[in-house]
UniProtKB/TrEMBL annotation:
Keyword Amino-acid biosynthesis among record annotations: no
Protein name: 3'(2'),5'-bisphosphate nucleotidase CysQ
Protein species of origin: Reinekea marinisedimentorum
GO CC annotation, single: plasma membrane
Catalysed reaction equations from the record: adenosine 3',5'-bisphosphate + H2O = AMP + phosphate
InterPro entries: CysQ, CysQ/Inositol_MonoPase, Inositol_monoP_metal-BS, Inositol_monophosphatase-like
GO biological process: 3'-phosphoadenosine 5'-phosphosulfate metabolic process; sulfate assimilation
Keyword Ribosomal protein: no
Amino acid sequence: MVPFEKVIELARSAGNAIMEIYQRDFETYTKEDASPLTEADLASHKTIVAGLQELTPELPVLSEEAADISWQERSQWAEYWLIDPLDGTKEFIKKNGEFTVNIALIKNGEPVWGVVYAPVLNWLYHGGTLTGKAEKVTAEGAEKIAVAKIPEQGATWKVVGSRSHQSDEFKTFVANMPNCDIVSMGSSLKLCLVAEGAAHLYPRLGLTSEWDTGAADAVLRGAGGQCLQHESLLPLTYNQKENILNPFFICCAKPDSTWAS
């Protein structure tokens, strides 16, 4: 049995390592794909990987900061940890607090459990289909979360949009909806807003990688929601191909004729 409580503690420990760096000046580097990387990404990565190897030595780990693992090797994995040590590096650099630690357990291509921790906000989400629930933990305590009901005809949809990357496809998608309010949020917290019922929909019509979504996708599924591929409306899958890019996707309670063609 996977010790989920200890993995939650591990996410908090990684958050603490990030906060030590967040509260001082820090070095920023540029990765091969030109995206930013900080000392904090690496500190979080080392904390999580060391902890997971101690807790579940039999399970492989795929991290954004150590992704150079061949498809030949990855294709043999039935179960593994998928982590993004610091999702929202741009938010971290801007110091707006909307960045997260993400740890997901993937089994046969499905995210079955995950934890998402935003250390500045002190919000922690965890859950999945493996535990049959999802929770949000704050300073006030833990509460079970669930997706919101689909708005009635003519009612307003709350749609999550990114502050830093709103694509033309997203703008077109929103323009075709009759009534909607845009809710802005950074990092994987966008998926969590749908999971906790604070928003109805998150259309991500731009590029992401599997580690960007795995943990929050698991939480969303535990909360009764879905993360669906934009074209087919089939669930997102993980580690089913050589590249780790997601297709465009939509997070929702379920497909609805308001937006699903």
